[in-house]
Specification:
The complex is a heterotrimer of chains A (353), B (241) and C (342). With 353 residues, chain A is an all-alpha fold. Chain A has one domain: ABC transporter involved in vitamin B12 uptake, BtuC. Helix content of chain A is 73%, strand content 1%. Chain A has 18 helices and 2 strands. Chain A has a two-stranded antiparallel sheet with strand order 1-2. Chain A is globular and about 65 Å long. In chain B, the strands form 2 sheets. Chain B has a 6-stranded mixed β-sheet with strand order 6-7-8-3-9-10, sandwiched between helices. In chain B, helix 3 runs parallel beside helix 6. Chain B is globular, with a radius of gyration of 17 Å. Chain C is mainly alpha-helical and 342 residues long. In chain C, 75% of the residues lie in helices and 4% in strands. Chain C has a two-stranded antiparallel ribbon. Chain C has a two-stranded antiparallel sheet with strand order 2-3. Chain C starts with a helix and ends in a 12-residue tail after the last helix. Chains in contact: A-C, B-C. Chains A and C meet through helix 7, helix 14 and helix 17 of A and helix 7, helix 12 and helix 14 of C.
Amino acid sequence: MLVKLISGDRPGSPILAIVLLAILVGLAFAPFLFPGTRSLDTAARICIFIVLVASYDLLLGYGGIVSFAHTMFFGIGAYGVAIALVTMGPSFGAIAVGAASGVVVATLLAVAIGLFSLRVKAIFFAMVTLAVASAFAVLVSQLPALTGGEDGLTYQIPRALTPAFRLLDEPVFGVRITGRILAYYLVFFSALALFLLLLRMVNSPFGRVLQAIRENAFRAEAIGYRVVLYRTGATALSAALAALAGVLLAIWLRYTGPATTLSLEIMIDILLMVVIGGMGTMYGAVIGATLFLLAQSYLQNLMGAASEATSALPLVPHLLHPDRWLLWLGVLFIMSVYFFPTGIVGRLRGRRA
Amino acid sequence: MPEPLLSLTGVHTHIGQYHILQGVDFTVPDKGVTVLLGRNGAGKTTTMRTIMGLWQASRGTIRFAGRDITALDTPAIAREGIAFVPENMGIFTDLTVQENMILAATGSAPDSARLDWIFSLFPPIKTFWNLSAGNLSGGQKQMLSVARAIVEPRRLILIDEPTKGLAPAIVKAMIGALRELKRSDTTILLVEQNFAMARAVGDTVAVMDDGRIVHTGEMAALAADPALQERLMGLSLETQP
Amino acid sequence: MTDLAIAPRIERPSLGQRLEKAAPLLLVPVLAVIGLVAIGNPSTWLTLTVAGLAMGMMIFIMASGMTVVFGLMDIINFGHGAFISVGAFVGFTALAWFSGLTAMPGVMPSLLAVFLAIMIAMAATGAMGYAFERVIVRPVYGSHLKQILVTMGGLIVVQQLIHVIWGPAEIYLARPQSLRGAFIFGEAAIERYRIVAVLIGLALFVAMRLILSRTKVGLLVRAGVENKEMVEALGYRIRRLFIVVFMVGSALAGLGGVMWGLYQETITAHMGSEIMILVFIVVIIGGLGSVEGCFIGALLVGLMANYTAFLAPKVALVSNIGLMVTVLMWRPQGLYPVVKAK
């Protein structure tokens, strides 16, 4: 039954299975295992980014398509909910409306971009998505009446999901069950469901055709599969799921702004997570997101300390400065593409490029 | 017997997972025209491309004029004195006829005496000298491709199916040009499916099937033996002139 | 042998066909006229048009390297923006060294300083291009996917290194006296620097065209874009040509960076990646691999950006996307798609 739940996509390596199980348990019981606002926040982000990165893997790993618009769809979902909550007040109905409109807009936009630019060269698609995503980000920051501009939108969420709300009077395992915990479990279970959905998709006939297209589009077309339709379909699904991840982020942060959703830095982070984790594996997204977010939260402190310690030397403290986090990311990223093309998951499964 | 100009020994070529050449052994004697015959898919073009270094032989040796050229890259092989006229002609359509010829010469321009000789072999080259090569007809492009290969003297010219899809009149012109080339002491390795063409210019012949050489010998002997022809090549080769 | 029996009639292209070939050239004046109609005021239009042409020239300089590299080497370099940023920073630093020259009275010393700064910047980015090609790009020849990923990574690393070397803040440098000021035409003020940019851009375009059509190296590049294999079969080591072209492309990006930096008078580490959006649009509009297409595309984008900045600033970037979409609807491969051998 468990195998059916993960759509037959076994981890393929005992170590991987254990790690995945550990991550699942850790996230499922995060409020109890890792109490504290910061750890819970990290856990929630991990859940959200697992969905975001896995949906990107659908496109990149399974479809072989590079897109730079993923953060745009992420933002559309988040802004959908944000705007709805601002205009309609803090209710679950507003969330539903916002989420639905976000997903619809993201999907339609993805279909438009896909049909337009997947016909020609695949590189066109990459460039077009970059241009469109940048234009979108600029547009968002220039419509402050609607989107709050550079500052973004802050809003209230339904009371049941706020820290003020108390579900039970007595703490459970030493932790007070507040609306925040409820919000966390909303995020967790939604993310879990979406991830299992993605597993279902990539292990379905659709997923297999997509991979065939990735390997040899010419042959796939010759056999009779309309390549453009499959690729556009993958783009649309990927966008819809990214939008849903955005919805979750909007609910969790109670804030939506260009920096948390649309920035190129996030896009790079996604690329990093999917490449290091392992392209075309889905589980790679889980590993990649967990590793990355844990490192980002806790490694920067380490870097700060190292920078201080070496402050007497020339250049070195600048290289180790926590703000230069991205430098090392970039180096790691390049090395992953060369030496780890199959990512951590691939290595664990014993496969070389 | 003098050493052959080109010899292939046990050459295997893999393209991706496909094992195309499965141990090719044959030699091309110095001077004259050697014809490589065979059905579609026998491996003739792969053999040519392997000699030229466009595909790397996975096993075996290729020797040219006493040197082992198996591991050399394509520009080095070209500089050894081997010219290549590929199946798709390889004409630079964005350049003019003149510019195509300039590229084929090592200096800044082809030798004018040599050019006059080429013009006599292929008059359209002169007629359309300043025209964009993309505007030439199929036959003229083929002529240009051969002309490029001979713009400077070469030891060996590899020509891959020069008459494929061309009108009979052009085939005649090509045969005439190849005969002239023979007279100028250039060795030619010719891939052909048109047996009449092969018989008209060929001195020695090698027949390929399924990535291997199945027969080598004198063209005259093969031409005089219909039974052998039938056995080697079946009915798939044209016998129309 | 009778020619006529073999040769087809080479017909002169019909008027319709000739017009179609020249049509993209007409786009620039067409857009200019549309701009005039939309803006109304001729002096404002003149200022904006010159500004647009200047911007377009600078983008052309930056984009030309990228499009030729792609056409010839089949390499996507998403890190091209890094050369732009580095060029700007090295150029500014060099210009600061020559502050003695720029302080001297008269036009010549300042121009000399700028010229030297540009040469140094181009040398630096050219050398950087060599390193980039060898270390980052060469291992991933043949895989567009990996090229995109790896060059993106390279871009990030270089941007961060700029922060390490020059600090995280933006750097401001005033244009030397010789490049300041404007000419007045009636009511229109046309900045001197913009004229300089247009002239440099035109000179480069003409130089590129001449090199490509008159020199053997240029022939090799054009032939190589179409059919690399055949060029090798003719005995040329096309790999060496690749490196040279990549370095020239990088140096041009560096030049573009210096010019752009002087235009804005401020530089930031990510200025390269910001302008890359427009570079991509230009390269797509022009047709990957075509220098002429790139030129026209750049002028169009420059004009569009400046016209919309005046008319409807909020949609400036979106308008260029709209331009790209329109052009691709008309010509899906770009204005002048390059013929590639199958």
